[in-house]
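Q: Make up one entry.
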Amino acid sequence: MVDVSHADIIQKMTLEQKCALLCGYTTFGTRPYASLGIPELEFSDGPHGLRHQADHANHLGIGESLPATCFPCAVTLADTWDTDLLKEIGKALGEEAASQGVNVILGPGVNIKRSPLCGRNFEYFSEDPYLAGRLGSAYVQGVQSTGIGACVKHFAANSQETRRQASDSILDERTLRELYLTAFEIIVKEAHPACVMTSYNRINGEYANENKHLLKDILRDEWGYTGVVVSDWGGSNDHVKAVKCRSTFEMPGGGLDSTRSLIHAVKQRKVDESDVDQCVEDALNLILPTDAALKQHPHTFDKKAHHALAQRAAAAGIVLLKNEKVAPLTGKGAAHPLLPLAAGTKVAVIGDLAGTPRYQGSGSSRVNATQVDNLIDAVKGSALDFVGYEPGFDRTDTRNDEKAQKALQLAAKADAILLNVGLSEAAEAEGLDRTALDLADNQAQLIEALAKTRKPMIIVLSSGGVLTTPWSAFCQSLLYEGLGGQAGASAVVQVITGEVNPSGKLAESWPNQLSETPLADRFPSDTVQAQYREGPYVGYRYYETAHVAVAYPFGFGLSYTTFAYSRLRVQVDEAQRLPKANVSFDLTNTGTYRGAEIAQIYVAREDAGIFRPERELKGFVKVALDPQETKRVTVKLNETAFRYFDAETNAWESESGVYRIYVGTSSADLYLYKNVKIKGTAAPHIQGDEKLLPYHFGRVQQVSRATFEVLLGHPIPKESPVLDRNLCVRDLNHGKSPILWLFRAIAQHAVKTNPNTNTFFVYNMPLRSMAKNAGNLISMGFVDALVREAKGWGLAGVVPAVIVQVLTGNFFILVWFLWFVAPLLIELIKNAVLNAQGERTLAAQDKRS
């Protein structure tokens, strides 16, 4: 978006109009002013497809949205490592947004996959910030090429769903910069996103949406960002503080409580009106250009073309994890890899997910797909011989011997078994975190039973997150589909038949077991703090440094062909403060299939003075080659390649010395390397304190409180819940109100008996979110009344209740209840009256303008 001065419009606006513009008007829309020529701005969920609701909009995934293409989720798109493809998908999403009157798509999500247990990992790209940043940048560029805005999220250090609306991420500055902000930095500097969404959580005690260090010092001043900042839906805590930090929009809409607070703050000189004007300027720089773009776009899109693009993306994101040699399925000959299957192979399709595919995640990103392919129809439509289908298991993890037996009988009729297993919708979703990495017992048992038929077995794994795979020993081929979107099933058949040569690579490490992950005993944090004691050692950074073996390393993926690397050359460029480099090498397809290879560049510091991971991804390229073809490949390493963040100098530095540049196919499979010498920035501070010894060896599973405090540079803050507006429903037992204890018990029961996005949302919700999500009904005054009750003020009602009880003998409970309810009713009535008055004032001002 191009920044243009709108001083003429702002000068005509009243203070009330300006403040109201910065607070949402509807669930996904901003307030329009017809007389000023300011139209409504419409946001829509859409990391992998539009979830735009014409009526009765909500942001929790309830309710049907308008039909849209469901592209593969971020977990699968990331496995493509294909920036050109991400631009295409972004462009298609922009076209669909424009067709539905949407100005801004709320995506991509680039949060780092700190733990494989995060329930929303399907919506995020990677455990690596460089990969997430490059893919996110391409996505944003694609969307914004249509004139529609993209909104990168969730800024920042938002790594768990448990307590996500009020959790406090405690981490050191270096880890924050190197791991959790780098992806955002790349996207802001490369793609200039129209919008950045702040996360729900606190960062070191300050909510993201009002965090001066995050929003002003880093995003605005250091990175030079001039676009819009929007709160996550219900994620605003103090709107006045947010505006002072140049956070533009508080969403969602409903009510004028926050508007009144901002107006009052300006009149009381607690915030400068110039701060409000700057946010209005930012808002207009988004609203007006995107509105102009909407008027130029047609109200339709090519559903067939977008479905084909979704299928191409799903095929590119499939990762071949295993492909053993087997005896020929038909006829004679030498053993060869099971995949690809030859035409005419008799295939038994088994698995509940094959009939009703699991192709996307649950929550606010859920898309009402224009069509959905399934594995049964895809096999029937191929050159394979479909011999039948059996579900084999219940996806609810209930054992069903009858279904399993029918699957075994069908398998006996086939040359090969095509089994689709994975996680159910209930196993991973927005709002909740996973508790294990295991495949459901009934699915693992079916795999073992099918193996006893001695028929070659291809397993297709559908999940948005990592799984442990001890059962993979029973199959000959294993394909990770991820969540492939509406065309994922057809893409799978393209790969197993050889129409598409798999080229996907894992964008996250797959451990052998949960106990071997760096956060095994600490994720998710169930207390008010999430302490990032592991520092930068997340994913492969931990496994490679601590020398922990994994099932499948970061960057891993097989092909039907083979590749060779040779003639490595590295040229270092130190003309600027932070060095860069060009890495060149020959890449040859040594096999018999045309295929694409993803070459990865890792940088390691030999004999580092500061602690750092064993190696880090700093470049990659995807190259398509014909059989026996060789290409000379050059990968540019930018200023992020050799840097580290020094908390003492508050700047990016590079350490002097020898670095090793690796080229390979995963973080563990490296074929070429070359040493280069860097002169560095001669920073005075080298982090070699012996008190940080565990960090030098990546032994971070059991970092002590004392060691973590050395890394932080200050004591860990107090962890107990505070009885204020941010007290979560789950923590109401810490208060002194029996009525609120009961409400908490009801919410806890709902979570245990019906665990889903909405019950977890309420359970983890801070009290102030009632006002932020239901402003038409509830004000902060209502919330403050609840806080007073939690503090025990309502217990004062016991005294008059006891008196009434003595006099009448009948009304103890009634008086106490009315003592609790009366202040709330007063606040509800007052809020309704003030909202009505405010709306009349704004309507009158719009007419006068």
Notes: The chain is about 35% helix and 20% strand. The chain has a mean pLDDT of 92. The two ends are 27 Å apart (CA to CA). The chain has five domains: 13-296, 309-507, 509-560+695-716, 561-687, 729-848.
